[in-house]
Amino acid sequence: MSTVVLTPEQRIRQRFAGFEEAERLGNVTLACRRLGISRKTFYKCRQRFAEARGERQALLDRSRRPHHPRRLLALRKQTHLGPARLRQLLLPPGIRRVPSAPTIGKLFRQAGLTRRHRARPQRYRRVFVVPRPGE
Hints:
Helix content is about 50%, strand content about 0%. By secondary structure, it is an all-alpha fold. Helix 1 (about 10-25) runs antiparallel to helix 2 (about 30-35), helix 4 packs across helix 6 and helix 5 (about 85-90) packs across helix 6 (about 100-110).
């Protein structure tokens, strides 16, 4: 199954057509089925469109990258914690939208704040030197 890459203007027209289709049919589920989008996507776009008071640019996809990685990077330098523990540290105070542990790990790798795994030290092997056979 191939995915079609749409230009921003095509994406806006497609989503706006979804609103019109749902209005015309009077059934969101049927309109979504015909357009090949999920109901969740439809309602998310409709909510954004309403919040933007009809601004067509609100129908475009938003960036998914973390917006403020500086706070995460500063915490990493202070605490030296890994992604999973750092995420747990941020969750209790009620900070909204904490990135997942893999995303935090990716930020650390991009910033060069990770280190390679240490090589296991070689075990010391004692070598016995025998001057003559049989001794």
